[in-house]
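# step 3/5: fold
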Amino acid sequence: MQLRYSFRVYPNGPQRSALARAFGCARVAFNDALRARESARAAGLAFIPSADLSRRLTAAKNTPERAWLGEVSAVVLQQSLRDLDTAYRNFFDGLKGKRPKTGPPRFKSRKDTRQAIRFTANARWKITPGGGLSLPKIGDVRVKWSRALPSVPSTVTVIRDSAGRYFASFIVETDPADDLTRMPETDGQVGIDLGLTHFAVLSDGRKISSPKFLRRAEKKLRRAQQSLSRKEKGSRNRDKARTKVARAHARVADARREFHHQLSTRLMRENQAVAVEDLAVKGLARTRLAKSVHDAGWSAFVTMLEYKAVRYGRTLVRIGRFEPTSQVCSACGVKDGPKPLNVRVWQCRACGVWLDRDTNAAVNTARAAGLAVSACRAQVGPGLVPAQREEAGTRRDGQMTVVGIPGL
């Protein structure tokens, strides 16, 4: 299984200049190839193959206008052409219905805040004995290694994000046998109900609170955005303020990603089978709950569950989004109808059991996926108990005797 390992890198001044030069050359190579194909399409000519684009790029290095393309590694330019081929392939596959539709490739701008270049094995990059990353025509870049690579990486991508940070992203091949030993088999099975009040409610009764990273950082983000709006467009101060806004958003995204990784790994370690509902995130993101939905990041979390289930030999089942998990009583199986969102605890009309809305949905999610779970986790109180003879009746003062419901 191929995975991507990212590490923070800290290039010095000359190395940052060399990286900026490589980013610019890769962008120009991409735009020249895209312009050639679009011009051919407008003229009614055949689609230009990749081999012709590669020959044109090599010939452009010998011209005075594009001679500076030779200042960077040739692998960086060729990989930029591969990226263009991937963009066209995704566009055509979307038109054929093989994948979700995407727009046609578009030109890259030098004002794009995210830049990336890729080095393959034939570029002769290497990890130095001192722990640095040696890149051709850039030098030895200092890397902060947070963990060891499981195998020798095949490619490395150097990324400069919107916050001005640099990362080295390695593609490595993991050993399936080693991955299985990291997660020993267990007999646990759990259903997950994702929400906003609690990020996740499990069928065993546990509730994971929603961190709400964006909500907690809103005050700082608002001040940074206000400072940006007051800066003159095109000035250096505006550029600095934009970087501050990007760094504030990056801290929120990093904290959310770390939370998703820790929770998904814990669930995979504790359970052999996990069931989750296929939510309509795009539809929910168009409602008044849009900010909270994006803050939760359900899609990213489920994606982590999917690839970790494949990696560690677990089972992940996604049930349909139209499954009435919140309407069915997990105790007797009777469908009690839809309920407004403010109803968090409800009583089944058939059996009289009081149920927690979220835990009941998690139990039904697990059952819809064919997992073995207990319904008692969703109950917050027993059903109605027949009154004893000495408890029923009317008191002398005319007041009725009321039998309470335990647990409420």
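# step 4/5: annotate
The CA atoms of residues 258 and 264 lie 10 Å apart.
# step 5/5: archive (pending)
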